[in-house]
Here is the input.
Amino acid sequence: MQQLALALAPPPEPTFDSFFPARNAGALRALQDALDGGERFIYLWGPRGAGKSHLLRAFVSEAAARGSAARYCRAEERIEGSGAGGGAVSAFAVDDADRLDMVGQLALFDLFNRLRTGTGTLLTAGTRPPVELPLREDLRTRIGAGVVLRLEPLTDEEKAAAISEHGRRRGLALAPDLIEYLLRHATRDMGTQMAVVDTLDRVSLERKRPLTLPLLREVLRLLEARPPA
Here is the structure.
C-alpha cells in the first residue's frame, strides 16, 4: 500500500436504526416513544461508550426530520431554548450533564422549568445515577423526577455482532478473525471501530484488495502513524 496520510472515515450520523440495542432495547423504545408523545423527560446514564450520545443525537435527528425544532448540545456548549431563526426548541438533548458548570446548571434548570409548564421533550445523559450527579440539588431532583434509564455497555460478543451488522449494512462480509483482531487492537469505543471498518472498506476499494487481516493490520498501522490533528 502506498504510504499516505490516512484518515478515519467520517462517522455516519447516528440513527435509531444504526444503534445496536442488545440489553438497551428498552431505552431505545423509550426514546422512540417520546417522539410519538411518550415521556417528556428522560435521563440516560451509564459508562462512556454505552451509546448515550448516539441515542441523544439520533433522537434529535429524528425529531428534526419530523419537522420539530431540535437541538443537541454537550456540557461545554451553551444551553439555549431557541434554535435557528429564534424558534423555540421542542426536542432538546443535553449530553454529559454531570460535567455542567454552574452557568450550564442554571441554564438547564431554567429549561426544565420552562418545558414543564409548556410543551416539548428534554433528554439528558451522564455517567452517574441522578442521586450521585455533582450538580445543584434542585437540578438533581428534576433530572431524577423523570424516567431514568441505565445503559449497559456491549459485551465483546455483542460488539462483534454490532460490527458484523455494520459491515452487512455496507455490503461487507467481515470474517470473524478480522472482527476479533479489530476488537483487540483498535480503540475500543464503538464509534472508532465502526469508522475503522468504513476506512478499511474505502482502502480496499481504492487499492483493489480484498478485506483481509493483513490489510486491516496495515490500515491500523497507518492510522497509528498519523500526525496529530
User: Anything to note?
Assistant: The beta strands are 41-45, 70-73, 91-94, 121-126, 147-150.
